[in-house]
Amino acid sequence: MKEELFVSGRNIPNIDPYLHIWHWQIPIYLFLGGLAAGILFLAAVYTILGKDKEMQATVKWAPFIVPFALIIGLFMLFLDLKHKLFFWQLYTTIRLESPMGWGAWVLMIMTPISIIWSASYIREVFPNWDWKFKFLYTFEAWVIKNRWYIAWPMAIYAVILGIYTGILLSAFNARPLWNTTILGPLFLVSGMSTGAASIILMSKNHEERRLIGRLDLLFIAVELFFIVHMIMGFLAGSQVQIDAANLFLGGEFTVPFFVFVILLGLLLPAVLEVLELIGFKVPIVIPAILVLLGGLIFRFIMVEAGQITRYLY
Amino acid sequence: MRYAMAIDTKKCVGCSDCVVACQTENNVPIGFCRDWVTETVDGTYPNVSIELRSERCNHCDNSPCVRCCPTGASHFEDGGIVLVTHNKCIGCGACIESCPYEARYSHPDGYVDKCTFCIHRVRKGENPACVSVCPTSCMYFGDLDDPNSEIVNVLKNRKFKALAPEAGTKPNIFYLT
Amino acid sequence: MKTRRDFIKISAIGLGATAVAAGAAKAVLGSSLFGNDSDNETDTLRRVPTYCEVCFWKCAGWAHVTEDGNIKKITGNDDDPQCNGKLCPRGTGGVGMFSDPDRLKTPLIRVTKDGKQTYREASWDEALGFISTKMDDLKAKYGPESMALFFHGSSGNHFSHLMKAYGTANLAAPSFAQCRGPRDVGFEATFGESVSSPEVTDIRDTKCLVLIGSHIGENMHNGQVQEMSEAIDKGAVIITVDPRLSTAASKSKFWLPIKPSTDIALLLAWIHVLINDELYNKEYVSAYAEGFEELKAHVKNFTPEWAYGITTLKPALIRSTAREMANAAPSVIIHPGRHAAWYGDDVQRTRAIAILNALLGSWGNRGGIFFKEGIKIPEFPHPEYPKPAWSWKELLDGKYPLANEAVTNSVIEASFPSNGKEARIKGWIISGTNLVASVPLKEELTKAMQSLELLVVVDTMPMEITGFADVVLPECTYLERYDDIRATSHREPTLCLRMPAVEPKHQTKPAWWIAKQLGERLGLGAYFNYKEYSEVLDWQLKQVGSSLEELQRIGVKKSSRKTSPYIEPGADHQFKTASGKIQLFSHEMAEAGFDPMPVFTQHPEPQEGFYRLIYGRAPMHTFSRTANNPNLVALMPENSVWINPQVARIWGIKKDQYVWLKNQDGAVSNFAVKVRLTERIRWDSIYIVHGFGHHHKPLHLAYGRGVNDTELITNVMLDPIMGGTGMRGNFVTFLTEDPRKEAEA
To answer: What is the reported pLDDT for C41?
Structure first.
């Protein structure tokens, strides 16, 4: 029998016996970031395609969620910090190698863009809205005129934000479960899927829901493919990565992962959406909520499980 | 200059003096530690072997903790010592996640803390507290770039290993086996 | 007259819990925005000399004191040959003794309130007055000999002086009958002197070190640990005999996992091989030893094959290890060990060890056992002690003829009436020893403590024993007081000073002050003819060519030796025995009616389902003494029971599970203990570290952590030669359910 033990009784809070330095704040931060990226990306794409009239929910209504999602996300990041008074230093330093730094900056850029985007639609929602100042009206007119141009950088940033939510984890070589490049695209697609789901929830237009629903099916299919790819990659890797994959293949995260993420979060909504496409009457709310919940739980599981995986002890 | 440590597992008795000495020298709060001792037991009675190791931050050449720090609080000092500037650290925890040696922790005061190789002593020409207190003298601290240093000498003459080299961080704590 | 003492938890009067949480405010506020980044400013520290009191090794060191009067750290003194500037974890963690929030803070007196016994806080004046009145009373009624002292550590000297001045010689240290006594008597019977403390083993230069149940490295006897490491560096062969793969065993060329209780058989077989194969040091034996022919005849049949059946060690292994020793001789040490009270035939076992050393010629040779040299510190002038009418020797009634120090068990047994005989001892002072954990005779101890007319406990911590006292006196820690000069006899004569690094915390006082105050109240002021203890130390140091001022500056003063540590080639060395020769055959033992040469006796073995209880040490604790030390509790908060995985499989016991232990007499451990499954132990034994399982709640950190092996040691095998209490003849089994819950249901 092989034994490994700490002779000096090491038992550091949040480090031993398993790392647990990131709690619930980080998965919520990642989820909201992905969601925002998904909505903004779709809004930008349909604006660029000139379909803003047909896709009202995608282009106008859903983006209203985004500023809130991003600000709450940033607040989650703030809650995670243990030395909060020093928070401002995130923005006095630019560290290109630091994923944490990237996130802070990308959010810092995305938040104003999303606010401006939504602000330009606010008088369509609330016709009585008064900007009070003349220059705001001028600015509004300028934004509305140049939406097509703003949509381009917004689409690009949305993709960066979506990928970033995965890279924040995958940049950590020390956590074998996170250390896979597929995590960026995977979280991006998952973010797109949750963004699509929120649009479906908000859309009153059957045609728009159908279109976004089809897109969501595509996202789900790609996401499943990436997940299989990720697990295969681990199983072909080193022992620590095999151990990481085994957390999902018989280990302690097997049931939550397969039941909540794969089955309820991906397969069931996909089936429901297919059923709807071929003509069955399915309340569209159900798959959309399942996708959102699945996406959230997926991030919780990845953050929790990743911290258990390690090189030593 | 490249500071490193070599620890003789053949002499270490696992007494953990290094841990207490670090605690009092560096005001490490009780319940936390910057260094620790592990024991690996292998074999089946009566053919059993033990390896005892005093472990700490490896002050890696290729330090993921320095790389991932968003504010530059984690940085290199002279001789490759990896240090955290308390007042620059925001406590985001990224460096803790990035360390394959689990050598960092969140200090109750908020910042991230870890072994400093007792840089305040090293600058005065003294050994780190753990090294200077070790009753078995099983630890060697010194400059790998100095061909006449004791550490270079033991590493030349003994078999040694590093922990989790596959994590690719190029650690600088070596275990004589 | 109150005769019955209820055990009182000191927390009953609300002490203790005041502790902790000083850092809490800081944690809430966070560190200052622009504050200083360095958490280890060392330039402003003041250095005060001390020597450690966490164990008997007494390493000299420095207390580093901050400007605001706190002790930041303790480091070793480079000039002290006991530690060479390196303290062990307990010494480094000695700060915890000082900072422990659970320390005793004021004198306490037992009172009965609403029919319930409790303690109330008292002034020093009142507490000391209470004790001296009672002691005067006992002296008048029964004579001063009716008082006894139990002691351990430096404070004991001050109380010994008081007791001798008072007129009693009943001064008993558990370290004799419960620990090193059998070893010392065995070596004295062979070489005419003991190996002392610190042991005079030349491990540094040895070529072969043999450890028998001695786990250097887990016992942090600092100098020995350092020297063993040096010996490893130099390529010395280590041979370890232990039913457990101790840390030392893991560093050994040979590990002999002997069946417990059969050590004498192995030792006799080794002696047999050395003599039969003519491997012994013939020149040395013929020059310095007598009784060789008798020994040769005695061990004739004790072949390795004979020993194999007893010890389970293969004959080839016994032979090859004997050969290793002979190859290294005379630079070989069969280590005498320290805690030797195992099976009741312990003097005989240590005799066998001494004989092996003699056959190999180790005593008086480099790499073997050297001759110590020290400086004798003269006594501070005082009137002659009164001569007691009787002493502990009379209590023995002819038992234990070779006991040369007071036998705790006999003093305890004389403290309660039995067989219609009145108790001869009526009052105790206990200083620095938690008798309930250090002496395995629970029943006798309880009877004695309920019969006494006076029971005073002096301690720094609310150990269990304080709960039985009439008066508890809070002593300050070693970091806050003067004590006697440590004048060590070892490789080099060394003088070390202990002085207060800081003022005593709370209302605690140094032992010398307590003894002096009691002395004056007892009319013995002439024995304490000084105001401060520093006067005594200065006078003593000046007699030996130093001064208090000098030692306050340097802490340690070494002098060079005047004599050789080894036998000079060709010299006619006289050992300190009656004949001047090493006693392979002991006439002294024969005359006292014991075997003149060691004989193997079979000891009981565990029944099915039971396992021999082996106890020992961990490097980060000194038994009870450190069990509540915050710095050391952080390293090892509880003990665990070592069980071989094969055994655990039979019982269905899992790693880290908590179990209760029950011994052959039905004694059950107070608390549950965590299971460590390990290949490091035999199938027929289990192992726990001594000093845990405290049931006194005022010890906030130690309370309820792990088990206390002393509770499970109900079978005590007394050594007829000197009264040692052999404690290894106990067997335990596992209970996976809380036995008390069952009892309640």
So the answer is: 60
pLDDT digits (tens, 9 = 90+) for A88-124: 999 998 998 999 999 889 998 999 999 999 999 999 8
A130 interfacial to chain B (CB closer than 8 Å)? no
Candidates C617, C631, C635, partner chain A, best to mutate (most A CBs within 10 A): C635
> Which of C453, C626, C559, C383 is closest to C4 using CA atoms?
C453
How sure is the predictor about C13, in pLDDT bands with cuts at 50, 70 and 90? very low
Kindly report the pTM of this predicted structure: 0.93
Map out the domains of chain C as residue ranges.
1-35+101-169+375-475+510-529, 42-99+478-502+532-564, 178-372+574-591, 611-744
What pLDDT, on a 0 to 100 scale, did the predictor assign at position C569?
Answer: 84
From the list C628, C710, C153, the residue with the least C-alpha distance to C438 is C710
Average the pLDDT over C548-565 and give the result.
Answer: 96
- CA-nearest residue of chain A to B100? A174
Closest residue of A to C218, CA-based?
A: A7
B110 with C31: Cβ contact below 8 A: yes
CATH 2.20.25.90 assigned to domain C42-99+478-502+532-564? The reply is yes
Interfacial residues of B (vs C; Cβ cutoff 8 Å): 10-11, 13-17, 19-21, 23-27, 29-31, 33, 41, 43-46, 48-50, 52, 85-87, 108-111, 118, 120-121, 132-138
Question: What is the SS3 assignment for C467?
Answer: helix
Provide the Cα torsion C428, C431, C437, C439; round to 10°: -50
| Record: fold of C611-744 | Barwin-like endoglucanases (2.40.40)
- C1-35+101-169+375-475+510-529 maps to which CATH number? 3.40.50.740
Please report all neighbours of C, defined by 3+ CB atom pairs within 8 A.
Answer: A, B
Give the mean model confidence (pLDDT) for residues C469-475. Answer: 98
For C57, the token pair is 């090794």
Give the number of domains in chain B.
1
Q: Which fold has domain C178-372+574-591?
A: Dimethylsulfoxide Reductase; domain 2 (3.40.228)
Query: For A234-262, what is each residue's pLDDT tens digit?
Result: 999 999 999 999 999 999 999 999 999 99
Q: Are strands C611-616 and C685-689 parallel, antiparallel or unpaired?
A: parallel
CA A34 to chain centre: 2
Q: CA torsion C531→C533→C535→C540, rounded to 10°? A: 140
Q: Interface pTM (ipTM) of the complex?
A: 0.96
Residue C718: both structure tokens together: 């007394």
**CATH number of the CATH domain containing B127:** 3.30.70.20
For residues C50 and C155, the answer to whether their CB atoms sit within 8 Å is no
**Residue C472's pLDDT is what?**
98
Cβ within 8 Å, pair C620-A8 = yes
- What is the sign of the dihedral through the CA atoms of A163, A166, A170 and A171? positive
Distance CA B44, CA B39 (A): 16
- Could you write out the DSSP letters of every residue in chain A? --EEEETT----TTTSSS---S-THHHHHHHHHHHHHHHHHHHHHHHHTT-TTT-HIIIIIGGGHHHHHHHHHHHHHHHH-SSGGGGGGGGT---TT-HHHHHHHHHHHHHHHHHHHHHTTHHHH-TT----SHHHHHHHHHHHHTHHHHHHHHHHHHHHHHHHHHHHHHT-TTSTTT--TTHHHHHHHHHHHHHHHHHHHH---HHHHHHHHHHHHHHHHHHHHHHHHHHHHHHTS-HHHHHHHHTTTTSTTHHIIIIIIIIIIIIHHHHHHHHHHTT----THHHHHHHHHHHHHHHHHHHHHHHH--S--
Residues from chain A contacting residue C637 (CB–CB below 8 Å): 9
Least confident of A91-100, C86-95, C690-699: A91-100
Residues of B in contact with C229 (CB under 8 A): 11, 13, 135-138
